[in-house]
């Protein structure tokens, strides 16, 4: 496959090599190649893991983005390496004792509780795709409590630090604009017949660089004022800098947008050129952007207008990144619709502009314009600063999420609320989710008038604790003695499991202790093979409908009260 061939998002294919998976995933402008070929484990195990990777990637799996697929593949490779060292050649050879050894090896390697948690979540996702290939005694051991994931409370920057970052990013973007804009303005007049001989010569030289990505002759270099240190030098980098954004400039663009909009890194990095609409009485066009939230199974796109203070900046950004898009478009290369396009410094004539930033490019030591070498560049902190200290609005989140994960995340507020919670007895530490599972599995129950969102209820009007009509969150059904599930409820319960696992796999703020408790209860019910057989589980999983997925998504996102 041509590595630059594109296909529809979510499409997963296999190469001739059975150990290579090719997935067209959001977040990548070309197919993501997930290669297991050189993994240090038995070929049989490698094939099983490749099958699982294929099933987990794309629109039908929980690894829905290029970043999550690559990250989870790395975790799976570490598991494969351990298996190779332990002499495990097939998933069926992974006994409960060997699984425990793997879990202990993570701790022995010095991994934090959060790291262990993420590693185990990924490997369990791999296992659950092919439960029939597991050792028969292993599933019930997978329900055991995992290492506690430490909740990360990211602190906002101080207002002083934030303002320095904003000022520095704005200055860096303006420097890119001042370097590129005059050359673009000259190019636009190239065919007007209004230019002097000298300007016409320079405009023609710039057109050559725009078309070919480099000066092709000494005459072009002379017209552009490029002096080279030795005769065979081409002056490629100097020429490209006249029309294309630099890597540091691209990072400054992303940081400036984050400071002005309060948007996370990934939506900015993957953003397409915003659309324009008539100005509606203002001097500038109103531009709107569409950011993707992949954890949503339905309605995954948030569309919002660019803030007024960012519109003029955005117009400059679109102008100076347009040459990169034009170059890609002229060659039929992907990425010509993306906002952040730049050309790294390299002399190679056959190189092309880059689309989107890598995490390595965000390291502060690589950024000459970064104003505070004591502070790391963290987009999460920028977003939290904007949301908590500047806008004080829950854009892109429910008010509950904004209150819990943004406002409460400041040290002072969190301490106050913790004291309040203890005094009022609102929260308790849960040590074992399995002990809190109260929903029972009933094969004989057939009446549908008792159905709730994810099961059935024996007495909706009499809550077992309050004696009043039930008003609990649907996830609390798993911990209620009135609740039961029947075989007809299994597809929706399994879909709930999938969506909770998708949320957990992102390791983001939507994964809360409350949802972790519900997930623990859910897997204790669904993975109990004494009441739900493997065949029954597999049939129910195949029976999941789009309506089930949509309903669970709406429930998890607070659409119903």
Highlighted features:
3 domains, mainly alpha, elongated, single chain, 561 residues, three-stranded antiparallel sheet
Provide a descriptive summary of the structure in words:
The chain is mainly alpha-helical and 561 residues long. The chain folds into three domains: 12-142, no CATH class; 159-377, no CATH class; 437-556, no CATH class. Helix content is 45%, strand content 7%. The protein has 19 helices and eleven strands. The chain has helices spanning 43-56, 66-86, 96-108, 113-129, 139-142, 159-188, 197-212, 218-224, 236-240, 247-261, 265-269, 308-330, 379-391, 399-405, 411-424, 490-505, 513-526, 534-542, 546-556, and strands at 12-14, 20-23, 32-35, 275-277, 286-292, 301-305, 341-342, 354-355, 440-441, 456-457, 483-485. The strands form four sheets. It has a three-stranded antiparallel β-sheet with strand order 1-2-3, with helices on one face. α10 (247-261) packs antiparallel against α12 (308-330). The longest helix is centred in the N-terminal third of the chain and has 30 residues, at 159-188. The model is unreliable at 1-9, 277-284, 393-404 and 411-431 (pLDDT under 50).
């Amino acid at each position: 496959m041509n590595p630059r061939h594109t296909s529809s998002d979510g499409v997963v294919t296999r190469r001739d090599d059975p150990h290579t998976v090719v997935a067209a995933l959001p977040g990548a402008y070309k197919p993501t190649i997930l290669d297991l070929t050189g993994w240090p484990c038995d070929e049989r195990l490698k094939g099983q893991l490749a099958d699982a990777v294929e099933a987990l990637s794309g629109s039908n799996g929980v690894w829905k983005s290029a970043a999550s697929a690559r990250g989870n593949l790395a975790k799976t490779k570490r598991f494969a390496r351990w298996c190779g060292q332990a002499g495990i050649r097939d998933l069926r050879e992974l006994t409960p004792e060997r699984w425990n050894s793997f879990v202990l090896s993570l701790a022995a390697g010095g991994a934090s509780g959060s790291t262990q948690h993420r590693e185990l979540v990924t490997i369990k996702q791999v296992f659950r795709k092919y439960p029939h290939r597991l050792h028969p005694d292993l599933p019930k051991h997978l329900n055991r409590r995992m290492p506690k994931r430490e909740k990360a409370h990211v602190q906002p920057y101080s207002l002083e630090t934030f303002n320095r970052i904003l000022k520095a990013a704005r200055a860096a973007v303006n420097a890119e604009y001042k370097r590129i804009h005059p050359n673009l303005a000259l190019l636009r007049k190239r065919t007007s017949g209004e230019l002097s001989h000298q300007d016409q010569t320079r405009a023609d030289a710039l057109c050559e660089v725009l078309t070919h990505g480099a000066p092709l002759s000494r005459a072009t270099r002379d017209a552009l004022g490029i002096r080279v240190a030795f005769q065979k030098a081409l002056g490629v980098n100097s020429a490209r800098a006249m029309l294309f954004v630099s890597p540091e400039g691209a990072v400054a663009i992303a940081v400036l947008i984050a400071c002005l909009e309060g948007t996370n890194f990934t939506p900015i990095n993957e953003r397409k050129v915003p659309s324009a609409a008539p100005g509606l009485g203002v001097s500038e066009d109103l531009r709107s952007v569409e950011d993707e939230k992949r954890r949503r199974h339905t309605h995954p796109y948030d569309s919002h207008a660019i803030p007024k203070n960012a519109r003029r900046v955005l117009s400059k950004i679109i102008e100076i990144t347009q040459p990169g898009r034009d170059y890609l478009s002229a060659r039929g290369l992907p990425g010509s619709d993306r906002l952040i396009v730049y050309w790294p410094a390299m002399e190679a004539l056959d190189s092309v502009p880059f689309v989107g930033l890598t995490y390595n490019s965000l390291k502060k030591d690589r950024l000459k314009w970064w104003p505070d070498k004591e502070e790391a560049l963290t987009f999460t902190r920028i977003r939290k600063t904007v949301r908590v200290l500047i806008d004080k609005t829950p854009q892109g989140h429910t008010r509950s999420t904004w209150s819990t994960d943004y406002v409460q995340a400041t040290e002072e507020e969190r301490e106050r609320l913790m004291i309040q919670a203890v005094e009022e007895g609102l929260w308790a530490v849960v040590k074992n989710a399995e002990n809190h599972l109260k929903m029972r599995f009933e094969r004989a129950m057939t009446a549908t008038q008792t159905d709730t969102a994810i099961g059935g209820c024996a007495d909706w009007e009499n809550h077992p604790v309050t004696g009043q009509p039930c008003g609990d969150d649907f996830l609390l059904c798993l911990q209620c003695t009135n609740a039961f599930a029947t075989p007809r409820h299994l597809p929706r319960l399994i879909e709930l499991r999938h969506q909770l696992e998708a949320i957990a796999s992102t390791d983001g703020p939507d994964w809360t202790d409350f949802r972790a408790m519900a997930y623990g209860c859910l897997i204790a019910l669904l993975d109990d093979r004494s009441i739900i057989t493997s065949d029954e589980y597999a049939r129910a999983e195949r029976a999941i409908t789009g309506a089930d997925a949509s309903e669970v998504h709406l429930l998890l996102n607070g659409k119903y009260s």
